[in-house]
Amino acid sequence: MTRVIVVASGKGGVGKTTIAANLAVALSLFGKKVAVVDADIVMANLEIIMGLKNPPVALIDVLKGRLEVEDVIYEGPEGVKIIPAGITLDGFNEENMETLKTLLKEIPAYIEILVIDAPAGRDATMVMDRGQEVIIVTVPQVSSVSDALKMKILAERMGAEVTGAVINMARGRKYELTAEEIENTLDTSVIAVLPDDEAVKEALAYEMLYVLKYPEARVTRETLSLAANLIGVTYNPEGRGFLHRLRRFFTH
Ligand SMILES: Nc1ncnc2c1ncn2[C@@H]1O[C@H](COP(=O)(O)OP(=O)(O)OP(=O)(O)O)[C@@H](O)[C@H]1O
Ligand SMILES: [Mg+2]
Predict the structure, then answer these.
(1) Which of 44, 74, 78, 161 sits at 20 to 30 Å (Cα–Cα) from 50?
(2) Alpha-carbon torsion 182, 210, 9, 235, what sign?
């Protein structure tokens, strides 16, 4: 069965889409067959950061019953499959939210890990289900963490398993909450701390993912380390050229 990892947050704009996309590619670099789905039907932007230009059909066509899931799977970087949302202003309603959960179960079995880029806040519960793992993204500020706690509670209510929290855009400033404080508030472990890194925005400007464009960046190392952790493999950055060797290792 496909392992499902939902990337969620309480507050918007904390980096879910960025993390979902780069994590998917990182998992793929470790040899996993990965798909990433944009479940943010209203504010879809995963396809943009994955470099997919104007996909003619998308998840919305499956929700409307016009196509099957297989028809809307696109090829992305490093063999990662992308399932774009397709923009709609209608968004979710009771009816299509149940459909969405059902069709997420129809992901082809060759996909080992499905990463879901969830919409911010309450709408995320529309993709959350039993048997899924949820990663809660937060920035190290009180308001973001208190909304993260609400999301964690909602995720558990939906029967999903909260794997832990990812602190994003950390700058190491005194006024930021520490990992320990965040762990205590959320009552879950912090499984990664991703720095606020220019590499993320620079990669965006090149329409590339930072894990591929900036293999030496700290944010890349931390993302690879998170991916390795999730699949239980050992990752030693080993300095320069690690990513290159990793890629060679997995592509012959
Ligand atoms: N670690 C980081 N360092 C620097 N910039 C970052 C980092 N992570 C994300 N960003 C930037 O922050 C902005 C918001 O990121 P993103 O769109 O991934 O958030 P989101 O949680 O998906 O937002 P939404 O709730 O609107 O879907 C983007 O401009 C992104 O490039
Ligand atoms: Mg997003």
Answers:
(1) 161
(2) negative
CATH superfamily of 3-230: P-loop containing nucleotide triphosphate hydrolases (3.40.50.300)
| CB 14 near ligand 1, within 6 Å | yes
Where do the structural domains in the chain lie, given as residue ranges?
A: 3-230
How large is the C-alpha radius of gyration of the chain? 17
User: Is the pLDDT assigned to residue 70 strictly greater than 80?
Assistant: yes
Whether the pTM exceeds 0.70: the reply is: yes
Q: Closest residue (by CA) to atom 15 of ligand 1?
A: 15
Model confidence over 174-222: pLDDT tens digits? 999 999 999 999 999 999 999 999 999 999 999 899 999 999 999 999 9
CB 98 within 8 A of CB 63: no
Q: Which residue has the tokens 């995963």?
A: 46
134 within 8 A of 128, measured Cβ to Cβ = yes
Phi (first) and psi of residue 198, to 5 degrees: -55, -30
